[in-house]
TrEMBL record:
This is Kinase D-interacting substrate. It comes from Portunus trituberculatus. It comes from the Eukaryota. PANTHER family: E3 UBIQUITIN-PROTEIN LIGASE TRIM-21-RELATED, PROTEIN CBG20824. SMART domains: RING. One of its GO terms (molecular function) is kinase activity. Pfam families: Ank_2, zf-RING_UBOX. ANK repeats lie at residues 86-107. CDD domains: RING-HC_RNF222. The keyword Lipid metabolism does not apply.
Length: 248
C-alpha cells in the first residue's frame, strides 16, 4: 500500500548553524518557560543545539518538562527527530526516562514535523526497544499502538503552558495562551468549564477555528458556545484587575 505523502516522517537536518548556549539548555531542563520565550523572541533558532547536539526539545524531554515541550510545539519550524551525539532523539530520551506524558505529547501532537518512531540510535535501538530495556513497557506499548497524526498544524491544540513551578505572583495577571496581561476589556479573563481561565481575545480566536480547547488541560469545550462573551467572567481576578487599574 502506498503511503500518503503527509504520513512520511520528517527528514530533519543535522546542523542548524547555531549553538545553543548552556544557560538555555539548563532553562529547558529547569522549566524556565519565560526565559525560553524571551530567547526565541530575539530570533534565535528553536532547533539550535549545544556541543552535544542537544536541543531545547531534547533537554525538556530528558527532564520531563511537559510544559516546555508543549510550548516548543507552537513553532511549526521545530524539528523533532534531531539526534544528539549518541543518536538519541527527544522521544528516545523520554522513553528511556519513563516520562509517559512527554512521550504521549510527542506522539499525539499534530505538528508539521512528523515523528520517526523507527529511527535507530548508535546502538541500533529505536524508542520502543529503549523503553522495554528501561522497564517502561507501558511506554513501549504506547509507542507501538499510537497512530501518529497526519501532518497538519492546529495552533489551538499546541498552545504553551505556564509552568506550575512559576511563582503565582508572576502569572496571575497573564493569559496562559498569548502571555498578554489581562485587562477589563478585550483581554478580560473568562472561565472555561474545566475551571481554567483565558482572555476573551484568545477564546474568540479559538472559536473562530471551530474548536475551543483549553491550553492548560486540553479539555474540548461545548460546541454550542458561539461567542467568548457566552462564557462567565473570572470575577475574582476581574476585581483585582479593576483595583489595580484604579490605583494606577
Amino acid at each position: 500500500m502506498e503511503h500518503h505523502e503527509n504520513m512520511i516522517p520528517c527528514q530533519c537536518p543535522s546542523d542548524f548553524g547555531e549553538v545553543l548556549p548552556k544557560e538555555m539548555y539548563l532553562a529547558a531542563k529547569h522549566g524556565q518557560l519565560r526565559k525560553i520565550k524571551q530567547y526565541l523572541e530575539k530570533g534565535h533558532d528553536v532547533n539550535a543545539c549545544d556541543e552535544d547536539s542537544c536541543s531545547l526539545l531534547a533537554s525538556a524531554s530528558i527532564a520531563n518538562r511537559l510544559e516546555v515541550v508543549r510550548f516548543l510545539h507552537r513553532f511549526p519550524q521545530l524539528h523533532r527527530n534531531v539526534t544528539d551525539w549518541s543518536g538519541d532523539t527527544p522521544l528516545m530520551h523520554a522513553a528511556r526516562m519513563g516520562h509517559r506524558e512527554v512521550v504521549e505529547e510527542l506522539l499525539t501532537c499534530p505538528h508539521p514535523c512528523r515523528l520517526n518512531v523507527d529511527i535507530l540510535n548508535s546502538h541500533e535501538d529505536k524508542a520502543e526497544t529503549i523503553a522495554i530495556a528501561s522497564s517502561n513497557e507501558d511506554i513501549a506499548r504506547l509507542i507501538q499502538n499510537t497512530q501518529l497524526p497526519r501532518l497538519q498544524w492546529h495552533p489551538d491544540l499546541c498552545q504553551a503552558l505556564v509552568p506550575a513551578r512559576m511563582p503565582v505572583a508572576e502569572v496571575i495577571f497573564e493569559c496562559n495562551v498569548c502571555y498578554e496581561d489581562y485587562d477589563t476589556r478585550d483581554r478580560r479573563p473568562r472561565v472555561l468549564s474545566c475551571g481554567h481561565s483565558l482572555c476573551t481575545t484568545c477564546i474568540s480566536m479559538m472559536l473562530g477555528t471551530g474548536r475551543l480547547v483549553c491550553a492548560l488541560c486540553r479539555c474540548a469545550h461545548n460546541s454550542r458556545i458561539n461567542r467568548a462573551t457566552d462564557l462567565p467572567v473570572n470575577y475574582e481576578l476581574d476585581k483585582v484587575l479593576q483595583e489595580r487599574q484604579h490605583l494606577s
